[in-house]
Amino acid sequence: MRISMPVMLVLRLLGVLFCFIFVFAGCEKSGPSTDDLDCYDYRDTQRLVRLVRSAADRIAQKGTAAFEVFRQHPKDWTYKDAYLYVYDGSGKCIFHGGTPELEGRTLWDVQDISGKYSLQLAFKMARNPANPHGWVHYAWNSPNRLNPQEKSSCHFLVTMPSGEEVLVGGGLPNLPVERSFVRFAVDEAVSLLERQGLAALDTIRSPASEFRFLGTSVFVFTANGTTLVDPALFLPYNRNILNYEDDTGHRPIRRLIEQLHKEPSAWVVLASRNPRSINMMKKGMYGRKCTVNGQQLYVAGISDLPKPAWMN
Q1: 50, 133 in Cβ contact below 8 A?
Q2: What CATH class is the domain 43-173?
Q3: Which of 18, 206, 229, 301 is 20 to 30 A distant from 4 in Cα terms?
Q4: What is the pTM of this model?
Q5: Buried b (16+ CB within 10 A) or exposed e, 139-172
Q6: 43-173 against 181-311: fold identical
Q7: Higher confidence at residue 66 or residue 272?
Q8: CATH class of the domain comprising 181-311
Q9: pLDDT digits (tens, 9 = 90+) for 60-92
Q10: Regarding predicted confidence, which is higher, 16 or 58?
């Protein structure tokens, strides 16, 4: 039986509507807790957190004796390209499941190709209660690879039976951008602006900061749409993005501002055309507003949205 074109279009639109309802249900949940991974959209993210948390629990109980367990049973403590690592408070590597030759080396001042001090960021994020899984995004070369890969890692600080505090982490290359990652980065940028004022803009726009990761960047603009931190470019001047249109003709910046007049934070959808598919790529833009030196500012970030199975 043939389905007419109008019916096909209606079915596709209904599918997109269902996708929006599914994707944004729970978008306004508070940040993830160590007991609740429901706010993550992807199983790999959830599985990685469970792996690293289990290792952290084992180290808290057994101390360095846990390292031998990790070495003797690697299949239980790795999956895909994920492996465990542990650093002491000085930044010295005391266990590394991916590159054992790093053990005994101090990596506190090591930077990735964008200038990020990834280990320093990891300690900072592990101590941040708003980021309970200590997420950090940076470039790293996986074992047996020469070229750097974008990597996302979660971290826990634990105290071993000896009383020493250590950082336990693990990551995966090319992990999808979670909405939780974007929400946390935007919330952190707002907090920084409220503490430091306009001086925070230099940090937010820096490639070495936690605000630029995995092709995503936090951006800041005024009520009339003038950028203070650009979403895509490093420009020596400001531009106006108020009337930016997505590939369906909608103006998501205007929609975000309208939503933030009603609520303290908001998600809006924007679409971009995928040249390799008949389907639009749906993205989510999360934003908040804050007041700095008497001026209303808007802070936002964009992530891809998980696709329902029928679009794969």
Answers
A1: no
A2: alpha beta
A3: 18
A4: 0.86
A5: bbbbeeeeeeebbbbbbbbbebeeeeebbbbbbb
A6: yes
A7: 66
A8: alpha beta
A9: 999 999 999 999 999 999 988 999 999 999 999
A10: 58
